[in-house]
Write a structure and sequence with these properties.
This protein has about 700 residues and is an alpha+beta fold. The protein is built from 20 helices and 23 strands. The strands form five sheets. A six-stranded antiparallel sheet has the order 3-2-1-6-5-4. The longest helix has about 50 residues. The radius of gyration is 55 Å and the shape is elongated.
């Protein structure tokens, strides 16, 4: 019996049942169960479904590609999202990209989401630190995530009940995000696969779009930077009054900047040639300029200053150029600058005129440019520094300072304070040509151009070397006097306080000894103050002598008696002839002279040695000498001992050095009497000081 063929409906029913077990059975087992015709129908249906799926995907791709190619940026993301939402049968979604800063930008958020969303401070830009929820995880982990559960969203956000999030990757680099949500039915693996397929298709197109946008932004930035740079360059050239030019031999082009056109007074657009330039040069300078340019074409440096004619005006310019040559030595092109130095030249001319006047000024007058290079050097500067103008013109002024002073830039040391205050004073120690170091007080002021700007610096200086030395001596003297005054006062105070406080415990002999010490120091203090008063009177020109006939042997004997108490270990000898004429002198001043000389002799002689005071008549005067057995005075020191505050160390006596004014007082008092004082000495062989006083006039 032949079997009855199944109807189409029966086959359809069988195929439906077979589909349920296809996934668990091998193809051979299925073939065995449903037969060859059933297999053919199943495969036909699968092929039809695959074709439909492929056609749907192709349609989606074509739509997306067409949008990317034809729709502007501000609409493109939204239209692509609408295609995806339709394909995924979803209500809401987003399509975003990662920008240059790494932030997620979502220009495609559907309008109803944006309008309905009531989240506070809503935005379409999300930096990585704000990536959260399921979409944030998908971005950070670079993998697809989906869920069919209700999502926890911020307050005011529209409800999200189902969602698929797919990161868009290009060569494993995160470049964007696709998200669809709120499908009426649950999302499954097919939906996931479909959205991933779309993301993979979009990835290279989106990357190309982003790269294009990036390049376009960079191009616009570069163009803006170039425009700004050109603007800044033109402004800088105008401020600096320095134009530029470029020569291109291959294209036969000579290009001038705006400032160069302004300096030469030639309108922009004028065809520029070497002849055009040369016609602007002052007639008297043309041959010189042409010679220098010809030399530059041979490879020599081109850095010249010359005049040009601009209308009825004569300008000075400085030109510099760097030319470019090929391997054969032929000119390829070059670059150069033209600086308007008219104001500088005018200022220099004024300086030269003033310098001619200042040449006769004996004080220091130095003029420099704003960088500190010397432009003018008068005879006063030559006298102090020892350098002629020819030796220093063009050099930096810091070379006229000591090394440690020149380390500070001239701008910081002079220019900056000068511009802030209008003038600047500075005291500098300068090395002279002979090696001698001198001090100069320099007052700097600015010489201004017609625009009121400082064009040059003029320094007026005074040699203050002697004043500095006196200040140093004064400081030393104050210290010495403080010590010399303090020591006696300390002894006096100590002795008197001891006598007063310990009166009942001291013997009469001990009390007497303390009082004698106090009296001795009081005498020394009186003598020091007397010397200071004498010097003050001399400097104030108020030294008045009470002249009377004076027996010098009597005065000398009195001084020796006082000195014996002060220097009991020394042998003080008096050697005066019996018939010695009296002198016309002030007896108190003669006593001071002898006291100072004897005090010095004892200080600079070993204990126990002899100090001899002698005298002899000499024509109309009496010569008195004080001889010691001390350390002597070196030849190099003899000229200095009568100067203020000069002291010679005593390596023998070990006594204090004193104030250094005793011999000066002696010299002033002797000269006030019309006499003179001098010394004979040899190092290690003692010294003899002599002075003479006029004899009493007869009649």
């Amino acid at each position: 019996m032949g079997s009855k063929k199944p109807t189409y409906e029966e086959l359809e029913s069988r195929l439906t049942d077979a589909e349920a077990v296809i996934t668990t059975l091998r193809r051979g087992e299925v073939d065995a169960i449903i037969g060859e015709r059933d297999v053919a129908l199943l495969r036909a249906k699968e092929a039809e479904q695959a074709l439909q799926q492929s056609q749907a995907e192709l349609d989606i791709r074509n739509q997306i590609a067409n949008i990317f190619l034809t729709v502007p940026d501000d609409e493109m993301y939204g239209e692509v999202l609408q295609v995806i939402l339709k394909a995924m049968r979803s209500r809401y979604g987003i399509f975003g990209y990662i920008d240059e800063l790494g932030d997620l930008v979502i220009p495609s958020m559907t309008r109803d989401i944006w309008q309905k969303c009531e989240v506070r401070d809503k935005t379409i830009v999300y930096p990585p630190e704000n990536w959260g929820g399921i979409w944030g995880r998908a971005l950070k982990e670079k993998k697809t995530l989906y869920t069919n559960r209700d999502l926890h969203v911020p307050e005011g956000h529209i409800p999200i009940v189902r969602v698929i999030v797919v990161p868009i990757l290009y060569h494993q680099e995160l470049i964007g995000l696709l998200e669809v949500a709120n499908k009426e039915t649950d999302y499954d693996e097919k939906d996931k696969s479909c959205l991933e397929t779309i993301a993979n298709y979009i990835a290279p197109i989106l990357n190309a779009r982003l790269e294009r946008d990036k390049q376009e932004k960079e191009r616009r930035r570069a163009e803006e930077a170039l425009r700004q740079s050109e603007h800044d360059l033109n402004r800088a050239q105008a401020v600096a009054q320095t134009g530029s030019w470029r020569l291109d031999v291959r294209h036969n082009q000579l290009l001038w900047s705006d400032e160069t056109h302004r300096i030469f007074g030639i309108p922009k657009g004028t065809p520029m040639t070497y002849e055009t330039f040369l016609s602007s040069v002052h007639l008297e300078d043309r041959e010189y300029v042409d010679q220098k340019w010809t030399a530059a074409l041979r490879g020599e440096p081109y850095d010249i200053e010359h005049r040009i004619i601009v209308g009825d005006e004569v300008k000075w310019i400085r030109e510099r150029a760097e030319l470019e040559f090929d391997s054969r030595g032929l000119l390829k092109g070059g670059f150069g600058t033209a600086q308007d130095i008219t104001e500088r030249k005018q200022a220099e001319e004024r300086i030269r005129e003033q310098a001619q006047i200042l040449e006769q000024v004996h004080d220091v007058v130095i003029c420099t440019d704003l960088e500190g290079y010397i432009l003018s050097w008068n005879i006063g500067a030559e006298r102090v520094y020892g350098y002629s103008a020819e030796e220093v013109l063009g050099k930096h002024i810091s070379s006229m300072y000591k090394d440690e002073q020149s380390k500070n830039p001239f701008y910081q040391q002079v220019i900056k304070p000068l511009l802030e205050k209008g003038s600047h004073d500075v005291e500098v120690e300068v090395p002279t040509k002979t090696g001698e170091e001198r001090f100069v007080h320099l007052s700097f002021s600015g010489i201004r151009d017609s625009s009121g700007n400082v064009a040059m610096i003029c320094g007026y200086g005074i040699d203050i070397t002697e004043r500095k030395k006196l200040e140093q001596l004064k400081d030393e003297f104050i210290g010495l006097v403080s010590h010399e005054l303090g020591s006696p006062l300390t002894v006096i105070t100590g002795c008197l306080n001891t006598v007063l406080d310990q009166a009942t415990n001291l013997s009469e002999q001990e009390a007497s000894h303390l009082l004698r010490n106090a009296a001795k120091e009081a005498d020394a203090l009186t003598h020091l103050l007397g010397n200071l008063l004498e010097l003050a009177r001399v400097q104030a020109e108020r030294l008045f002598l009470h002249v009377e006939p004076v027996e010098t042997d009597i005065v000398a004997r009195n001084v020796i008696e006082k000195m014996t108490e002060q220097y009991p270990t020394y042998e003080l000898l008096l050697d005066f002839p019996e018939e010695l004429p009296p002198v016309d002198a002030d007896p108190l001043r003669v006593e001071r002279i002898l006291y100072n000389l004897l005090d010095n002799a004892c200080k600079y002689s070993p204990k126990g040695s002899k100090v001899r005071v002698f005298a002899k008549p000499d024509k109309d005067s009496v010569i008195i000498g004080i001889s010691d057995q001390g350390v002597g005075i070196a030849t190099s020191d003899r000229e200095k001992i009568f100067q203020a505050f000069e002291r010679i160390d005593s390596s023998v006596s070990g006594r204090g050095k004193g104030t250094g004014i005793g011999l000066l007082v002696c010299q002033r008092l002797v000269e006030a009497h019309g006499g003179r004082i001098w010394v004979k000495s040899a190092s290690g062989k003692g010294s003899t000081f002599f002075f003479n006083l006029p004899c009493k006039r007869k009649g």
